[in-house]
Structures are given as C-alpha cells and as structure tokens.
C-alpha cells in the first residue's frame, strides 16, 4: 500500500489464507480494486521445488497463470476506477433499535458484536448509569484502536461507546474507569496475528479492593465478577471499537485461544507479597491505581521442572529457568507467582523482583545451535554476533527486563504459572474517574 | 494506485519480505523465475524492518531511489 502511495507500482503476492484480510484491508484503505495475486497456502515448510511450482501454476483465486498475472499487474494500465483513491468510514449502525430484547440479542449475535454468549442489553438507562462513573464527557474521544498497527486503519471511539461495551459485558459502574484506562491505550485484546496471541492486564493499587477483585484463591479462574467482567469487556471493546475479531478478516489466529474470551486479568496480591508491587516498579506511587499490559503467546503452569523437588526449600529459580528456556524469544517471560513462591525465593536470597530477574538473565542460556532451530528466537545482531559459533552459549534474553514478576494467588500451594509474554506499558486508572 | 510501467524489461524489481517464515525462500524462487523467464529484469531482495505491518522508511527511500516496482510477499 505504501509503495503505491510513493508512486511505485506494487504487486502483493499473498497466500490464499489471507484472501479476505487482504481484500478487506485494501478496501478499508481506499483501494478496493488493488491488484492482489494469491498463492496456495502455506509457503512456509515447502521445498524450493514446491514453491516454484506455485509460481508456475495458477492464482487459486483468479485461475490465471500466477507470474504472468503478477507481471501484468505491474504493467497493465490502470482502469479509471483503479486510479481512484478515497477513504471508507467505519459503519456505526443505527442510532436506536426498536424491537424486542430477544431480537436485539440476536442482532448483536448476527453482527458479531459479542463473544457468542448472552450480553446485557445496553439500554439508555444502563449506559447513562455507567457514564456517571466518570467525570469525562460522553462524547470525549478516548483513543484509537486497530487489530494490528499498520495493517488496519485505527478506529477512534468515545467514552459513551466504551460505556455501551461495558454494559454489554456485565460491568457495574465502578469498573468503568478501568475500562476507560484500557481504552486510552488503544491496545486491542484481539491481535489479528495467525499466532492466536493473548493479552494480559495486571491491576495494582487500592482499586483492587474497591472493586472487590480477587487476588487470592482462584484469582485467575471464574470466581469473581470484577476479574471476569473487566476482561470480557476488553474483548468486546476489541471487537466493536476497531472492527477486530472477525475471523478470516481481522482475526487470523489459526486455532484461536480460550484466553481471548476474557483475557488474563491479574490483580496483584500486594498484601501478601514480600516484593515491590508491579506498578511501583514502573515508577507509580503505591496508592495510585494502575493497569499494566502484557502481550504474547500463552500461559502455562510451572510444575514438574527440575528444582521444585529440592528440600527444604524448592529451588524455584531453577524451575523458572528451565520453564522459560524453551520460550520464543520474540516475547519475554511473565511469571505469575503465588505469595508462597515469592516468599520462598526470598528465603533463597532473592529479596527483590530484580534479584530473581537478574539471576534468570544470567543463568537461562541456550546454545546458538539450538537457537537456529527455534522459531521466533533470533540470534543476536551487532558486533558480538561475529564471534558466535554453533557451540556458543548465549543468554535466552539479553536484558533482565525480559523477565517480569507478578504475585497472585491464595497460598494454598507454592505454585507459579508463566506466560511467554512481553510487557508493553502501564497507565493510570485514576485519571478516568 | 500508482501508474503502471510500460514493461518490466530492464527494470529493477524489489522483492520485499514482510518477515513471516518462508517469505525469504519463496521470494528467492520468484527471483529464479525472473532469471529463467525475464532475464532482463533485475531483482533485489530485501527484508522489511520491523513487524509485518510496520513501515520501513529507510527501505522505502532505497526503493524510491533505485527501484521501479515492488513484489511483496505477504503471509506464510
């Protein structure tokens, strides 16, 4: 798209799995007639001979010889319609709905505006009640969101539009400032990638107790209204405020991910943690209410790794290192540790989160030979790369800040979970009250 | 859309990878196809910096200065 704007004719050669995405995206960017050629999918994992056969074969969409079509797309004069430019305004729908409650539920389902579970109908009365939970005006623009930066145009949205989604998800007005803070970042919970990625939000500060969030027993399970509904609202916002979550168009995760239903919402157990709260690590005051965002592949449990059977204190750090080593280095490691684990690490000498992060950075290593076989785990670049051989051993991640820690859990067992996820940013909730 | 070329003969076509797995090998086959079928076309392979949808101003400038057309591999 950019090349066409530069005056350079371009021929996108797209694997057919991305047909709808490519054509929809071209239309949304004002080039509905962009010349796009398609190959069979995938090309990854195919031999040179198989890929060359794709080129000698036909475009599976047009049925025309593929490379002749590519050459023609760069050399055949544009039709008058192809030369036109313009922008497309996102659909906003009718301002009001007249019908029964069941009919409105069905309309939301038919338009892909839910997670395919029943929603609370956003009546004027309920939306107005939500709007009273913030000092910001209903028509204030909160932010812009896109399913993938650069790939899709970003949509902007207002306080009122977030309120509608908040009601639909089942939020009570007290949750609304948290949802506005999420909206202010423009971070979609439903990234369009084929990798079925997931999103996480860590919540710190007194608001955890005000909202009666659960950071103890079962914190990450379906056992608390605020934990569940805040995450669900984020998913609905990511569908309805940026056009995301349309499978095959703006969402391409091959298998999808159950976490996308309501995301990883992690209120930190500051009370029982021996360590500094996450938001204070990021420069906020303890009394501030803050939400911090992570993004990446998935979450897994940390049990069974070497070190956890050590007595009297399990060597949690060794287990964490073993758990993180196979991760893709494209993202970092987020450890969600029960307070018992944090205290156990403290007994082993790791008095701060930085202590354990620094240890892991130095001691979690991989061989260059192995890195070469690992997808999404690139080798170091720069001058130091020249001296590396297959036998060289390098840190899994070059910096300790790739390891992040949040304390959460009810101390019924010294367990930790970990996610192959990277920290993105932290924002204040208080400015949205 | 940009004005099309009269011909690719003698032109430089940039083959740009979006960074997805397999795109580099696939574009190498595109380069081989041109050598066999349109040998007067010069192809230049480049891996676009950043994520798949990120802009790469440095590469854009290079293409603007040295190229006449782009074939971009998208997907994997």
List keywords for this structure.
heterodimer, A: 433 residues, alpha/beta, six-stranded mixed β-sheet, two-stranded parallel ribbon, 15 helices, flat, B: 76 residues, three-stranded parallel β-sheet, 2 helices, 3 strands
Could you describe the 3D structure shown?
- The complex is a heterodimer of chains A (433) and B (76).
- With 433 residues, chain A is α/β, with parallel strands linked by helices.
- Chain A has 15 helices and twelve strands.
- Chain A has helices spanning 2-5, 19-28, 48-56, 66-75, 101-110, 124-131, 159-169, 176-185, 207-210, 225-240, 278-281, 316-324, 339-347, 353-363, 368-371, and strands spanning 10-15, 37-39, 141-145, 155-158, 198-204, 264-267, 290-301, 333-337, 365-367, 393-395, 403-407, 416-428.
- A six-stranded mixed β-sheet of chain A has the order 6-5-7-12-8-11. A two-stranded parallel sheet of chain A has the order 1-2. Chain A has a two-stranded antiparallel sheet with strand order 3-4.
- The radius of gyration of chain A is 25 Å and the shape is flat.
- The relative contact order of chain A is 0.11.
- The mean pLDDT of chain A is 92.
- With 76 residues, chain B is an alpha/beta fold.
- Chain B contains two helices and three strands; from the N terminus they run βαβαβ.
- Chain B has helices at 23-37, 57-66; strands at 12-17, 42-47, 69-74.
- In chain B, helix 1 (23-37) links the parallel strand 1 and strand 2 (42-47).
- Chain B is globular.
- The model of chain B has no long low-confidence stretch (mean pLDDT 91).
- Classes of the chains: A alpha/beta (433), B alpha/beta (76).
- Strand 1 of chain A pairs parallel with strand 3 of chain B.
**What kind of assembly state do the chains in view correspond to?**
heterodimer
3D shape of chain A:
flat
What class, by secondary structure content of chain A? alpha/beta
How is the largest sheet of chain A built, in terms of strand order?
6-5-7-12-8-11
